[in-house]
Design a protein that fits this description.
The complex is a heterodimer.
Chain A: H1 4-36, E1 38-39, H2 55-63, E2 70-71, H3 75-82, H4 84-116, H5 122-130, H6 137-148, H7 155-162, H8 170-173, H9 175-200, H10 204-212, H11 217-245, H12 249-253, H13 264-274, H14 278-307
Antiparallel strand pairs in A: 1-2
Helix pairs in contact in A: 1-14, 3-14, 4-9, 4-11, 4-13, 9-11, 10-11, 11-14, 13-14
Chain B: H1 7-34, H2 39-42, H3 57-66, H4 68-99, H5 105-116, H6 124-133, H7 140-163, H8 168-176, H9 181-210, H10 214-217, H11 226-231, H12 241-261, H13 263-270
Helix pairs in contact in B: 1-12, 3-12, 4-7, 4-9, 5-7, 7-9, 8-9
Classes of the chains: A mainly alpha, B mainly alpha.
């Protein structure tokens, strides 16, 4: 049904979305890339062009590669990567991403299996389990930080005292555990929901046949259910990784990056907006983009395969 | 894979599932309950669960002290505006990709998805700088545009997976029966596309409402939405649990309700059609 005229109409209909996303991708990316090779410390008087210029002058500066800023080659990249903060941030990021992934995938599978069983009020339970995903990140972080983890008035402190134990100062004594707990609470529902959807498409006849052939519950889980879930699990891992690498608000309102909870995202944020070392922060940004792209390639492959169906 | 089971087994399932479900939901429940307590009751030890003097006082205080309505209005404008704008731009694109696919359609879709993978912090300064240069820092219309661009790939993808399920033969049949392009769009396509568009709208409104990177970094006073309003409670000031709870409840209640309607679409929308 695709005629020549409908093809050109299709192109016109696609044009706005494609054009906008192209601009959205290329302009900020090129700016980050240019600035990562520059020395740019606004607090020490470095300026892009003259103060009070219009947007036209800014565009001119942009096209000519910001001539007022000194070109420093790869200095920002080596400085960012060789600082101790970078190594710590990478480790922190990996621990948070890995911890939340482990919790949400393992408990997600168990919870999805449970929710898939026959029971009364299944719909209500599902709603209860999914709810945390809809809570805005600043709310969930602050509710956990104050009402549960506060060392004097939090519920955990009350609970600990009830058993005669000293309350734990969660966010400074076990900061990583606390953050993983908060973030897992937000992402476990997502994993559960997707794995439950996958479980529901599992053929029950296959399971019954295996049962009749003498396969026990463990064998049925490992040889039938788990292989069936493998694609859903992969997708949960990849999508969550992309979101978890970018976790920001949860750290912003709880520890503010203190107590060894500074992730790569948070480190770059601090370099750029707090200490205003734009060149260094931009180099960090380039590293973050490369890291996210490695994950993205795998995700795109799976999603792409699905398109060919 | 639900199978017939005995009643005791079903009762056991029910008991375990409800316990875990309530445990996961508990922080939300506790927040809502605490919002109706006085500050003293909010920190009482042992904690009071249901039997306290229910009061609406906190809601009044939050509105009075921080002008809650302004933050709410900013959230509505930013989330609603970005979603509607995104749909307007995405519907033609997704429509043409679903009904007039070309060799490059798949590449374009995957490329759009890849822009979504760009870590926000990697382009934080450029966007910040552009906002300053254009004079739109702390401007809610700038956030409408930015959140629209962030969610545009998801909107296009969701609409595409919905539109692709509309059989093309129906359009041909309508054409054979003498329907004009206008009739085709109005009477054939629109009724079939509306449910897909509605769920796309819903999910993206939720995502935009909860977005907390750009809304925290690009606003200060005028354009600050509820995410930023709640973040302002991160430095405690005396007794404030009940007020924090009231503010939190108001920020999440509308979205929880919308979210419950959209749980089915959530899977499709966030896995880009890869899990259904």
């Amino acid at each position: 049904m695709a005629t020549q005229s409908s093809r050109s109409a299709a192109r016109i209909m696609m044009a706005p979305a494609v054009f906008l996303l192209l601009v959205w991708m290329l302009v900020p990316l090129s700016l980050t890339l240019i600035l990562s090779f520059k020395r740019f410390l606004p607090l020490r008087g470095d300026r892009i062009g003259e103060r009070g210029d219009g947007f036209g002058d800014f565009l001119l500066d942009y096209i000519t590669g910001f001539p007022t800023l000194d070109w420093v080659g790869f200095q920002n990249f080596s400085a960012f990567a060789s600082s101790g903060a970078f190594t710590d941030a990478v480790i922190t990021t990996l621990v948070i991403v890995g911890g939340v992934l482990a919790v949400s995938v393992i408990f997600g599978i168990l919870l999805a299996m449970l929710l898939d069983q026959p029971m009364w009020g299944q719909g209500v339970v599902r709603i209860l389990v999914i709810a945390p995903f809809f809570v805005m990140p600043t709310v969930s972080a602050l509710v956990w930080k104050n009402m549960f983890m506060d060392p004097t008035n939090g519920l955990f402190a009350h609970l600990w005292r009830a058993f005669g134990a000293d309350p734990v100062v969660w966010l400074s004594d076990v900061p990583m555990f606390s953050l993983i707990l908060i973030i897992s609470w937000q992402w476990l529902p997502f994993a559960t929901l997707i794995l439950l959807t996958a479980f529901q498409s599992l053929d029950s006849e296959q399971l019954e046949a295996a049962e009749m052939d003498g396969a026990g519950p463990l064998a049925r889980f490992f040889f039938i259910a788990l292989p069936h879930l493998s694609r859903a699990i992969t997708i949960v891992i990849l999508i969550q990784t992309i979101f978890l690498l970018a976790v920001f608000a949860e750290i912003f309102v709880t520890t503010g990056g203190a107590f060894g909870t500074r992730t790569l995202t948070y480190l770059i944020y601090q370099r750029v907006l707090e200490s205003q070392n734009i060149g260094l922060g931009s180099a960090g940004g380039v590293y973050a983009i490369i890291l996210a792209n490695i994950v993205a390639i795998f995700l795109m492959r799976i999603v792409g395969k699905n398109l060919d169906r | 894979m639900a199978r017939a089971v005995t009643t005791p087994r079903k009762a056991l399932n029910t008991a375990i599932a409800w316990t875990i479900g309530l445990l996961i939901f508990f922080p939300i429940l506790w927040t809502v309950l605490t919002s109706f307590k006085t500050e003293a009751e909010a920190i009482a030890n042992p904690p009071v669960f249901l039997f306290f003097d229910w009061t609406l006082e906190n809601y009044g205080v939050v509105q009075e002290r921080s002008n809650y309505m302004r933050f709410l209005w900013n959230s509505v404008i930013i989330a609603g505006g970005s979603t509607i704008l995104g749909i307007i731009i995405a519907v033609p694109a997704a429509w043409s990709m679903a009904f007039v696919p070309s060799r490059r359609t798949k590449d374009i879709l995957l490329w759009m998805l890849s822009t979504k993978m760009l870590p926000a912090v990697g382009v934080l300064y450029p966007i910040y700088l552009l906002c300053i240069e254009l004079g739109v820092l702390d401007n809610r219309y700038a956030l409408v545009v930015i959140l629209m661009l962030i969610n545009l790939p998801i909107i296009v993808w969701m609409l595409y997976t919905y539109f692709r399920e509309i059989p093309g033969e129906i359009l041909e049949a309508a054409r054979m029966d003498g329907a004009s392009l206008k009739d085709e769009l109005l009477y054939v396509l629109t009724p079939m596309a509306v449910p897909g568009i509605a769920s796309t709208l819903l999910l993206n409104f939720i995502l935009a409402w909860n977005e907390a990177f750009w809304t925290l970094n690009l606003t200060s006073v005028d354009a600050a939405p509820l995410t930023a309003f709640i973040a302002s409670y991160s430095s405690p000031e005396g007794l404030f649990f009940a007020k924090l709870s009231a503010a939190s409840t108001m920020a999440i209640a509308p979205i929880l309700i919308l979210g419950w309607f959209s749980q089915k679409q959530l899977v499709r929308g966030l896995t880009f059609g890869a899990v259904k």
